[in-house]
Design goal:
The complex is a heterodimer. Chain A is an alpha+beta fold. Chain A contains seven helices and 23 strands. Chain A has three domains: 211 residues, P-loop containing nucleotide triphosphate hydrolases (Rossmann fold); 84 residues, Elongation Factor Tu (Ef-tu), domain 3 (Beta Barrel), CATH 2.40.30; 104 residues, Translation factors (Elongation Factor Tu (Ef-tu), domain 3), CATH 2.40.30. Classes of the chains: A alpha+beta, B alpha/beta. At the A-B interface, helix 2, strand 2, strand 3, helix 4 and strand 9 of A face helix 1, helix 2 and helix 6 of B.
Chain lengths: 418, 301
């Protein structure tokens, strides 16, 4: 593997055991030779105990005790595999409606979403829900896998039908890049290896799509946004006046000499130096972790954002977000929450629930003002100070927020700026 | 023309540095849990990069079981010295002497589980509010569900069903008095990633990881090193083998593998063809299907 060039691709798989999601992941790992022998031995052992012939690949993704006992995935589990072309991180999330929050979590950092459809059942409520979440979280690439093709005699009409059903409802969603693949996770058709049973399919197997899709543009390289995490002050000989503003570039490209503005104060300066780790560099881009120094001695601290003077985010104290409620306790109207946005933290309250969305039908409900676990709603938020915001569509890092309940200190909601 | 994307190791590095800086910003008194193993060495190295040109702002905390490889202890002391960071040592022997814990009995007795008490006591004593660990999600299925910022209640316990959602780059380290967090900056690294990175960066690791001649005994399919703690069974015999260790735990439970890999490059080549997980030679994980999950709930690393 060429480690100098290979990229990291994060993808999410939503679905239930019934769709063959676990079998698909097991198949990917098995055929890409990512399962170790002691793991395989343990699965073979369990398969035998359960009276299953051969190896049940789905067992490979079995998780915690409760999950095994109930035969379900409760939480997001992360899996890893590497091919000669890329490193992959799978965020394996449960597909049932009561786990919407976990799907949202897994989707928040994904480059791609794999949506599974059972060829025998076609598009069902769950498919619409998964597509909605993928679109809401602005996942750049979607792969729709029509699974269990072996159970419908590998018929092209079945695949084309499902594809049309999907395209019909998904035209209402914002999806940039979508591809359809007929597969059989159980037999391995079109997962890693090309199917001999479906010569009519002209596309690539799922793994080669994942290996080759263009992901460099998934990160916004246009709008330069840099939130300061912490200030590095060595306070030792040779560095007495050194103040390095450390953070991870959210988007865009920064070069030494660039004219920058510090928000929210509005002070202007120029970039004097950029450090990536212990090396000094001339330019840096998202998602690099860097530290930078400025020409002028101005007051900059955690939560401030350094942007290029000619391209700035909006400074807003009141704004609309699509909010997903993640907590067992309902939202309390006009209660103070802590809002997290980049490295910035303020107090906030939910002023109004504009509408709630039924994520199975996409219908809007403007009467119900409650926010319960797994609800998704458009809400108005007001903060004590202005935040430096971009729309989530343009920028996943500077258009996203979370809310923390001050009484329990738990993260209770995740929001995307409209 | 510069390609404006990171390769996967650069991206993992950037993510880890982000998490380490977030720990520093959100907590009052964070430490790095340092075992002398490659993963905690990697975390320490990443912390050095994260705060360059300043010194690492975290102390190193080591839980000393009294059953360590002498080479690992020496390496620990030299590294702390070189980086100029404070070293905090929690001693399992002291916990035993104070009557906080009792030594396990029987043939396969280890001090593995005893570490939990010593670790939690040290966290308490030094008022640590965040302990940074080198845990990776690919190591074990209970770890596959671990967060970057992992909440522990005031008993130091992990509740797998009550973890905080982590979305985008937004990490929530808020906690009540007496509670603490564990942070895992290299969650997304695999064993292979760690070796590739250590090699690329030329990071020094204890010689135990490289192939060397050692007196060992074959037990449960692993080569257990000879030490003053090892009690031979009647049918066992000490032999001299060329071995190396894939992980470093207590000398009593860490099995070596036969290997000729005596350079970093050879290790990378060897690991890439390995067909067994690295913890396959750790008898602490072999005790039951849920050995790691159970220990984690109690407050293990």
């Amino acid at each position: 593997m060429e480690i100098d060039k290979n990229q990291l691709l994060r993808f999410t798989t939503a679905g239930s055991v019934d769709d063959g999601k676990s079998t698909l992941i097991g198949r990917l790992l098995y055929d890409s030779k990512s399962i170790f022998e002691d793991q395989l031995a343990s699965i073979e052992n369990t398969s035998q105990q359960k009276g299953i012939d051969g190896v049940d690949l789905a067992l490979f993704t079995d998780g915690l005790k409760d999950e095994r006992e109930q035969g379900i995935t409760i939480d997001v589990a992360y899996r890893y595999f590497t091919t000669p072309k890329r490193k992959f991180i799978i965020a394996d999330t449960p597909g049932h409606i009561q786990y919407t929050r976990n799907m949202v979590t897994g989707a928040s950092t994904a480059n791609a979403a794999v949506i599974l459809i059972d060829a025998r059942h076609g598009v069902i409520e769950q498919t619409k829900r998964h597509a909605f979440i993928a679109s809401l979280l602005n996942i750049p690439h979607i792969i729709v896998c029509v699974n269990k093709m072996d159970l419908v005699d590998f018929k092209e009409e079945v695949f084309n039908d499902i594809r049309q059903q999907f395209e019909a409802f998904s035209s209402k969603l914002l999806i940039k890049d979508i591809r359809f693949i007929p597969i059989s996770a159980l037999l391995g058709d079109n997962v890693v290896n090309r199917s001999e049973n479906m010569p009519w399919f002209q596309g690539s197997p799922m793994l080669s799509e994942l290996e080759n899709m263009h992901i460099s543009s998934d990160t916004n390289k246009i709008d330069a946004r840099f939130a300061v995490q912490t200030v590095i002050r060595p306070q030792r000989d040779g560095f007495i006046d050194y103040r390095g503003y450390a953070g991870r570039i959210a988007s865009g490209i920064y070069r030494v000499g660039d004219g920058v503005t510090v928000l929210p104060s509005g002070f202007k300066s120029k970039i004097k130096s950029i450090n990536a780790g212990d090396k000094e560099v001339e330019e840096a881009f998202a998602p690099m972790s860097i530290s930078m120094t400025l020409e002028d001695d101005i007051d900059v601290s955690r939560g401030d954002m350094i942007v290029k003077t000619n391209n700035q985010p909006e400074l807003l104290q009141e704004f609309d977000v699509m909010l997903c409620w993640l907590n067992n306790d309902q939202a309390k109207p006009r209660t103070k929450y802590t809002i997290q946005h980049t490295s910035n933290e303020q107090k906030a309250m939910i002023k109004d629930v504009v509408y709630k969305i039924d994520i199975n039908t996409y219908d809007r409900d403007t009467d119900d003002k409650s926010l319960k676990m797994n609800d998704i709603a458009r809400v108005k938020i007001r903060t004590t100070q202005r935040l430096m915001l971009d729309s989530y569509r343009d920028n996943r890092n500077t258009g996203s927020i979370t809310l923390i309940d001050e009484a329990t200190k738990e993260t209770v909601a995740a929001g995307m700026l409209v | 023309m510069t390609p404006y994307y990171l390769n996967y190791l650069e991206e993992l590095e950037s993510e880890a540095i982000f998490i380490l800086r977030e720990v520093w910003a959100q907590f009052q008194n964070p430490v790095i849990l340092f075992s002398g193993g490659k993963d905690s060495i990697l975390v320490t190295h990443l912390a050095k990069k994260a705060f360059h040109p300043a010194k690492i702002p975290f102390a190193l905390m080591h839980v000393d079981t009294g059953h360590n490889f002498p080479e690992a202890l020496q390496f620990r002391d030299e590294l702390a010295d070189k980086l100029g960071v404070r070293l905090i040592v929690g001693s399992v022997q002291e916990s035993i002497d104070k009557g906080r814990v009792a030594e396990e009995k029987g043939k396969n007795a280890t001090r593995n589980a005893l570490q939990i008490t010593t670790l939690l006591d040290a966290i308490d004593e030094h008022k640590v509010d965040c302990a940074i660990g080198g845990g990776r999600r690919d190591e074990e299925k209970a770890r596959a569900k671990e967060r970057f910022f992992s909440h522990r209640d005031d008993f130091g316990q992990w509740d797998p069903k009550n973890q905080r959602p982590e979305l985008w780059n937004l990490l929530n380290g808020k906690h009540f008095e007496g509670e603490h967090f564990r942070a895992f900056p290299i969650s997304n690294w695999t064993e292979m990633d760690v070796w590739n990175y250590l090699t690329k960066e030329g990071i020094e690791i204890p010689s135990l990881y490289l192939a060397h001649d050692r007196d060992v005994v074959l037990r449960n399919g692993s080569w257990i090193p000879k030490s003053k703690f090892l009690k031979l069974e009647p049918n066992e015999e000490i032999v001299r083998k060329k071995i190396r260790f894939r992980t470093l735990g207590d000398i009593t439970i860490t099995g070596g593998i036969e290997s000729d890999a005596d350079t970093m490059e050879k290790i990378v080549a060897e690991v890439s063809t390995m067909r067994e997980t690295e913890r396959g030679n750790r008898s602490d994980d072999k005790r039951s299907e849920t050995a790691m999950e159970d220990r984690k709930k109690d407050g293990y690393f």
